[in-house]
Structures are given as C-alpha cells and as structure tokens.
Amino acid sequence: MTALQPLIDSIVSDMRKMEDKGRVADYIPPLAQVSPDKFGLAVVLADGQVLTGGDAEEPFSIQSISKVFTLTLALGTAGDQLWRRVSKEPSGSPFNSIVQLENEQGVPRNPFINAGAIVVSDMILARHEPREAIGQVLRLVRDLAGDDTIAIDEHVARAELETGFRNQALANYTKAFGNLHNDVDRVLGVYSHCCSITMSCRQLALAGRYLMLGGRNPETGRQVLSAHRTRRINALMMTCGHYDNSGEFAFRVGLPGKSGVGGGILVVAPGVASIAVWAPGLNAQGNSLLGSLALERLAAGAGWSVFEGG
Ligand code: GLN
Q1: Do 173 and 206 share a domain, yes or no?
Q2: What is the pLDDT of residues 153-181, one digit of tens each?
Q3: Which CATH number fits the domain that encloses residue 285?
Q4: Which of 15, 36, 216, 228 is 20 to 30 A from 28, comparing alpha carbons?
C-alpha cells in the first residue's frame, strides 16, 4: 500500500491539472454557480484517523447521497417491510427515469433512483409533519458525523421544488399505483430538503463511518443499523449507487459508492475506510467525472477493493 497522505496529495494535484472536468449540473442556479475547479477528498480510516486533500472542508450540496441516509432511517423504522414497496435491482436507467415504473406497477427498481427515494421519503414521513421528518434525517446525519453545524440549504431546496417537474411526475405516477401514502407535495418537500443537505468531504466521510463499521456509529458507540442491514446497504450502493453507470464504477473502483448531482461521492471500503470526494463536473450519467477517476486511483493505490482475493 502506498502511503496514504502522499497518495491523496498526488491525486489532488493530478485532478487539478485535468482539462476535461465534466459539466456542472445546471438545472438550478445554486448548483450551476459552483466552480468546476473545486476538488476535495477526505478519508476516514477505521482507527479514526482523518486524511484530507484539496477543498475537503468546503460544504457542497450532497443531493442523491442523501438517499443512503434516508434509506438508513427508513430501514430502522419500517424494517424489511420496506422491500415490499421498493425493489433491489439496478435500473440501468437514468436517475430520474419514469419508464420502468409503468411495467413494474409503481414499485421503483431501487432506493437510490429518484422514484425509489421518493417512496422512502413517504415512509419517513409516515404520520409525521414534513418538518419533523426532515429534522429526523438532519439529526441522523449530524449524529453520524458528530457535527451539529451540518445544515440544509434552503435556496437549493426551494429551487429543487420550483423546478422538480420530473420528480412530481414520478411521485404522482407512484401514487396512482397506490405506492405513495402521503400527499405528493409533502413527500416531495421531504425528498427535496434531504437532497439539499450541505456537507464538506470531511463531514460526509465522517458520516459514512457506520457503513464501514457494520452499522456502528463510533461517535456515540451506538448501533445505527444492524450489521446485516448495513451490509445490504453497501450491496445496493455497489449495484445501484451510480444509476446506469454502476457497473462501470464497480469495474473501475471496486467499492460501494453513492453519487450526487452536486458532484459528491461517498464510498466505503468495508472495515477499512469511509471516503468522500467532491468534484462538481459530471459525466453523461450525472456522476462526478473527476470524483470517479480520483476514487479509481485511490482504490488502486491503497489496494482497496471488495473483490480482492486476499
Ligand atoms: N435533487 C436531484 C433530483 O431530484 C437529485 C438527483 C441526483 O443527485 N442524482 O433530481
């Protein structure tokens, strides 16, 4: 294994020199305004050591990475009943696609595409007010990271709701099949606010520690989720975490990961490390272009892969 800090430093300097940085998401102004030159990387090891590089302290919009945290919360409350309403198969389709919902009677392919996360948001909402449901997700993320300063960007949330016509279509279509129990606007309020959580790479990597530690939050010593369910979240991150790019990501990086359209990726080397990368420019499938490349180099350099023969 290459020494980690020099490896991180060389990845940061290589990524800064790349000419093709991908395209920053432009569907809402607060994301379109982010500089494509940003690049941050944070690694938290199982022993608690934190290593960082580049813009690792700068907060960004975690977007679909929040789907991991909402799933964690919903699994904790709904348990395995959740899988009656959301499947576990890779979609092979874009994150906001509606096509499979008709054939599959309003049961989304997995919890990491928009339709799936909207159903998960409906479960979190259950009998609560949207404000309480959003508060629960934020509390979970703050507890996991051990950082009460983590917040929701209300500008992003408002812009998401004002332009979220596809998400409205997905929610209404799911509701037509009886797989959404609450009012569409209330569910989308929860969904969009979760997408609008703002975190730095350091905070995100800290929040991901439970995924490498069999569900235990080292901050509090408490079990966030059973080891069994945590392993399953990692499996879904591997197979579905990058939409129609999940196979390529598994092939190149070999670790479970979840991307967001803000350019962040949370990655887990089970038992070894929780990693967060941020590079706002995206590839054609809406995943961070340089983030994926950086993770490929980090995993190769550090010798991390869940497919290692040992
Ligand atoms: N807020 C975005 C949406 O709902 C999240 C998508 C993503 O990060 N891939 O479209």
Answers
A1: no
A2: 999 999 999 999 999 999 999 999 999 99
A3: 3.40.710.10
A4: 15
Of 195, 204, 245, which is best to mutate to test ligand 1, by the most ligand atoms within 8 angstroms of its C-beta? 195
Gap from CA of 26 to ligand 1 centroid (Å): 12
39, 150: one domain:
no
The total number of structural domains that make up the chain: 2
- Considering the domain architecture, whether residues 294 and 179 belong to the same structural domain is answered as no
Q: Based on the domain organization, do 147 and 177 belong to the same domain?
A: yes
What are the distances in angstroms from CA 167 to CA 12, 48, 65, 83, 155?
35, 38, 16, 21, 18
61 lines ligand 1 (CB under 6 A): no
Tokens of 221: 């010593």
What's the CA gap between 282 and 288, in Å, rounded?
4
Question: Per the domain annotation, does 309 fall within a domain?
Answer: no
Task: Using the atom order of ligand 1, give the atom closest to the CA of residue 167.
Answer: 4
pTM of the model: 0.98
232 within some domain: no
The 10s digit of each residue's pLDDT in 45-100 is 999 999 999 999 999 999 999 999 999 999 999 999 999 999 999 999 999 999 99
By the 10 Å C-beta count (0-12 exposed, 13-18 middle, 19+ buried), 102 is classed as: exposed
pLDDT of residue 309: 63
State the Cα–Cα distance between residues 108 and 110, nearest whole angstrom.
Answer: 6
- pLDDT above 90: residue 10: yes
State whether 151 and 204 are in the same domain.
no
pLDDT digits (tens, 9 = 90+) for 189-204: 999 999 999 999 999 9
What is the overall mean pLDDT for the chain?
97
Check: CB of residue 177 under 8 Å from CB of residue 105: yes
Q: Which residues are designated catalytic?
A: 64, 67, 191, 243, 261
